[in-house]
Design a protein that fits this description.
The structure holds two protein chains of two kinds. By secondary structure, chain A is an alpha/beta fold. Chain A has three domains: 34-188, Rossmann fold, CATH 3.40.50.980; 243-417, Rossmann fold; 422-517, GMP Synthetase, Chain A, domain 3. Chain A is 31% helix and 26% strand. In chain A, strand 1 (23-27) and strand 2 form a beta hairpin. Chain B is mainly α. Classes of the chains: A alpha/beta, B mainly alpha. Chain A binds chain B through residues 88-89, 112, 114-116, 241-248, 270, 274-275, 425, 457, 476, 479-480, 483-484, 488, 493, and chain B through 17-20, 22-25, 34-37, 39-44, 61-62, 64-66, 69.
């Protein structure tokens, strides 16, 4: 009898039972089969329990994509704890804020990132243990950490720790940029994540013989779901750490007969800049795009170059994972649409007074379904703004904050966001966070950050600054200071040192005018 | 003719003045620029633009690989080879 997959890690157990020798993940020249992945996960889960991790405790994983960070993900869930994966480019101040928010009991971190986490971990009362990847036992001991191998050796057992969670318990907290600049922790239950996995696997018709190549970091929920979905169907996943050398990625797609490739518009724009016809990419069965809209010309060009591949234009937000997908057969008919609701999801549009809108009218998108998050960690007011009563008593639905319209066949079109978040390289960049970082630089009097259209990035982050004359600063020096303070996707691509900025009657910088003046 | 010592200095200067070298990661000629978190995909493109404009060479798709762009040493060897 097959057991229902109610908890996220049930997917791993099922695939390991079905085909233990099949390769689950390959990364950096290493590979791991499903059976071994499940065993390592059991070991680390036992170790976490032995270290005092209780049901519902949080564990942060701060590491590059690797087989070890994949093991850590499954193990944290198996231990009954809540996982939060943090991007390795995070800077200490932001890591400290995330730690203060979710109060992790254990930090699993790449030893290479010591400069990022060591002071934060030492100062955080909640963190009882640091498990270090890539450190020897001696190096780890000298710093008060537990080396990865030593941690695995703490746990033993042919199965994981006793099952303690329900599907309504939290599985993950995924931090996403908020418009105020402070990251918000999106709380996802096992049920949320299992539902999203089933729904998207169905849309993509994913199969056990798929080979997926992902260049998206596991800290990015789009990247994390590549792993969850691959494991759910028992497919093989290539984790790539970077898209810095696109030609190598294309060669790997050809050599490994990759069937599925998820990307964001910047990645597809880069690929289209290569001579793809020189490579045999006939193995590709599907491509997915989300995080930002793929320009129609790129969508159609990909379709022309890879006629055998189904191209999925998708749209969603971390708060419900995915909202819609454009069925591949509609891409020439409706290339500008983000499509229809994913299976098991319902959507509608409302006006400011919460009245449902008719076809063609622009309004806020509302999402109903099992993928809708449980709320923002520790932020009841922010949660109440986004999750509001739905059609059934006690039910809550997601008010996305995105303005959309529907056509007469029920296809959705994204119009704009209701806040000022910039989408660059497919990642959310809150102007307030970038402005706060720039204001910390000595010599800056005032700053305004806007998004400007960019062929490759979608939107480029653009900072206009006024100097106070106390330091010798130019655009290059400001950019370097930004790199020290912000993740690279938030660093302004364009910095304009200005003598004056347009202002509104109340003296505030007029960003609308700034954007209009920008050429 | 520009001598190779000054090529090396210009490449190093570009990397250190345009990208953030995290504390503790001392940058030497063999430091892996991607793994050390100094370059990301946008950074690699900025580096390509710099090299093409500074040294008057063209970087082909197939040349954009870690063997040529992975470290300062790799970059200098690549530039030297391209200029023959």
């Amino acid at each position: 009898m097959t057991r229902a997959c109610l908890l996220v890690h049930d997917f791993l157990a099922a695939s390991a039972r079905r085909a233990p020798a099949d390769i689950a993940i390959e990364c950096d020249g290493q590979r791991i089969a499903y059976g071994v992945l499940a065993e390592r996960s059991h070991e680390l889960a036992h170790a976490l329990v032995a270290l005092g991790v209780a049901r519902g405790d949080r564990v942060i994983v701060l590491a590059e994509s690797s087989i070890a960070s994949a093991i850590a993900f499954w193990a944290v869930l198996e231990a009954g704890a809540v996982i939060s994966i943090v991007h390795p480019q995070v800077k200490p101040a932001k890591l400290a804020a995330l730690v203060a928010s979710c109060q992790p009991r254990v930090l699993v971190a790449g030893a290479r990132l010591e400069a990022t986490f060591s002071d934060v971990a030492r100062a955080a009362p909640s963190i009882a243990h640091v498990i270090a990847l890539g450190a020897s036992d001696a190096e780890a001991r000298a710093r008060g950490w537990l080396a990865w191998d030593a941690a695995l050796a703490l746990g033993a057992g042919a199965s994981g720790p006793p099952r303690r969670c329900l599907d309504v318990d939290l599985a993950a907290i995924i931090y996403t940029s908020g418009s105020t600049g402070a990251p918000k922790g999106v709380m996802l239950t096992h049920r949320n994540m299992v539902a999203a996995t089933h729904s998207i696997c169905e849309c993509l018709a994913m199969r056990r013989d798929d080979t997926i190549l992902s260049v998206l970091p596991l800290a990015f929920n789009y990247g994390l779901y590549q792993m969850i979905m691959a494991v759910a169907v028992g497919a093989r996943l290539f984790l790539e750490r970077s898209f810095a050398f696109p030609n190598e990625i294309v060669q790997r797609i050809a050599a490994e007969r990759v069937t599925g490739f998820p990307g964001v518009p910047t990645i597809f724009a880069t690929l289209l800049g290569l001579d793809l016809a020189r490579h045999d990419l006939s193995s590709l069965r599907y491509l997915t795009n989300t995080a930002a809209a793929l320009p129609v010309k790129h969508l159609l060009r990909l379709h022309e170059l890879l006629p055998q591949a189904r191209i999925y234009s998708m749209y969603g937000l971390t708060e419900c994972k995915r909202c819609t997908y454009l069925p591949p057969e509609d891409i020439t008919r409706k290339p500008a649409s983000v499509g229809i609701a994913i299976p098991n999801t319902e959507l509608w549009l409302v006006d400011r007074d919460d009245r449902r809108l008719d076809t063609g009218e622009i309004g806020e998108l509302v999402i109903r379904g099992s993928t809708v998050m449980a709320g923002y960690w520790g932020e009841p007011e922010e949660t109440a703004r986004k999750l509001r009563p739905g059609p059934l008593p006690g039910e809550r639905v997601l008010y996305t904050g995105d303005l959309c319209r529907l056509d007469d066949e029920g296809y959705l079109y994204f119009v704009s966001r209701m806040d000022d978040i910039i989408k660059s390289r497919g990642e959310k960049v809150p102007p307030a966070e970038v402005e706060a970082a720039i204001m910390q630089i000595t010599g800056i009097r005032e700053v305004a950050v806007i998004g400007v259209p960019d062929e490759l990035l979608g939107e480029a982050v653009c900072a206009y600054v006024l100097l106070d004359g106390s330091a010798a600063l130019d655009a290059r020096a400001i950019k370097r200071e930004c790199q020290a303070r912000l993740e690279s996707y938030m660093v302004p691509a364009v910095i304009v040192v200005s003598d004056e900025l347009p202002r509104m009657a109340n003296g505030k910088i007029d960003k609308t005018q700034l954007a209009r003046n920008h050429t | 003719m520009i001598d190779s010592a000054s090529d090396h200095e210009r490449v190093r200067q570009f990397v250190t003045s345009n990208f953030y070298v995290p504390d503790g990661a001392k940058l030497d000629d063999t430091t892996p620029l991607i793994e050390a978190g100094i370059l990301d995909s946008t950074g690699v493109l900025e580096l390509v633009t710099f090299i093409e404009s500074t040294f008057g060479i063209q970087v082909g798709d197939e040349e954009l690989v870690p063997a040529n762009f992975g470290s300062i040493q790799a970059l200098c060897t690549f530039i030297g080879r391209k200029r023959g």
